[in-house]
Amino acid sequence: MTRLGEVVSNQEFINASTAITVGTDAHYNFSNYASPQAAIQAAIDASTAIGATIVINASCTLTASVNPKSNVHITCLPGVVITFNSGHVNGVPVSPNDGFHAFETSEEISNFSIYGLRFNGGLTVLQTGVDGVEYHAIYIRHGSHDFTVKDIYGTRVASGVLRFRDSCYGFTAKNIEAYEADCAVICTVGCNNFTLDNIRATSCFAEGLFLGSDVYNFALNNIYASNAGTCGLSINNVYTSTTRAGIRANISNVQIYNSTLKGINLVGCDELNLNNIYCRGNQHDGILLDDCNNITINNAQLWSNNQVRATDSTSTYAGIRANNCIGLDIIGAIYDDDGGTICQYRGLSTSGTTDYVNAVGGRVSNTISSSQSSILGGNSTALSFTGYNTRRYHNNGNVSAAPTILLKNGDIQYLGLIQNTTLSTLETNVIAGQTLIIITRQDSTGGWTFTLPSNITLLSGAWSPNTSANATAVLSLIYVNSTIGWLEISRSG
Prior knowledge:
Blueprint: H1 10-16, E1 19-23, E2 28-29, H2 36-45, E3 53-56, E4 60-62, E5 73-76, E6 82-84, E7 103-104, E8 113-115, E9 118-120, E10 138-140, E11 145-155, E12 160-164, E13 169-179, E14 183-188, E15 192-202, E16 209-212, E17 215-226, E18 233-235, E19 246-257, E20 264-267, E21 270-280, E22 287-290, E23 293-303, E24 318-323, E25 326-331, E26 334-336, E27 346-351, E28 355-360, E29 363-364, E30 374-375, E31 381-383, E32 393-398, E33 412-417, E34 421-422, E35 435-442, E36 450-451, E37 456-457, E38 472-481, E39 485-492
Parallel strand pairs: 1-2, 1-3, 3-5, 4-6, 5-8, 6-9, 7-10, 8-11, 9-11, 10-12, 11-13, 12-14, 13-15, 14-16, 15-17, 16-18, 17-19, 18-20, 19-21, 20-22, 21-23, 22-24, 23-25, 23-26, 24-27, 25-28, 26-29, 27-30, 28-31, 32-33, 33-35, 34-36, 37-39
Antiparallel strand pairs: 35-38, 38-39
């Protein structure tokens, strides 16, 4: 006995019901019907009373939609591919017609499953973005409930591989993969009480995963998107702009890479918990929060986001950016430019009426001189929030006459002296309280001077470290503010 929304194996489905084959040398042979979809539909229509499993045993091309029904399970044998006309490419209809959904519910249905299907949308020219015309591989709507969709793969689909709409509820979608589709999964307009697990989207034209317009009480687990045309994950109320988008949800284990816009885009969302988030190389914000309330982000890593584009030569995006939000808890986030020559503008920034932001235990590594580690609105706090990765040793090796210390590499920095050396000005884009330990070592010749920059304030007079061969000297500093700069704590050697 399975529970609501629980995914069971394909074999369990088949064993639990009568198996009816469709295709070649089958109960419903393609050759005996006007089209493959007519054969599949006939098998479905004849099976609603007995709750059969329809097994498609041969690849086919659909020329119109198949309509799933209540109490019927639909699957394919391994290697079977369903090709269909998925419609418009950049707004231009694809011959011979304007497209259609391969599998589409025409009424409210329940207690069914669709699993193990592979779709080819039939596109030979790929669209470059959303064209406003939707033709999905699987389209479930009209209040359908208590069902499972799993193990679905789709490629070259002009719209979503899987779409839920119009108050579907009590369902599970698992192991959904899209390549060069518009989206992997789209879920909108009143859907609720559902789980999406293990969703993968590669080179999608728009979002990897899109949810929005009064979608509530849901869970997203194990989401992966790379090279999306807009965002990797978007929860947005664009379908019904007067509603909220996503409400009351747990979102865990998300990896987003190289999106053209944001990594994660949350607009009009309330009461979301995000855990274990990894965003790298997205061209705008790693995570954007706009008009969101009561959001918790726990353990997020934002690496090398805010890549400067030709059309956006001065990026003002951030690892996490919040606009007109209230009540954000950001715990243990890491914002890092990953040592790239093109790096992020800020780690965490807020704008508009954003208020009540708590950033706890995070750190920022940032090398753009005009940027800031964090910008927080009123009634906000930053606790144990450091500008750079603390307690990390970095060996600079033998240095030049005017070396630069990159604080993002750590707060213990070793420099080997092989000539007279003047240290470049230390970075000031840090949180007050950041510490730095400088270790110098003379080579086997010795005698080399080491001159400090002007933004180091010494408490014990001029520093004249031992210049004997192989001598080591240590200077400990703490950052106070832009006036005092780096203040001496202690010295030795």
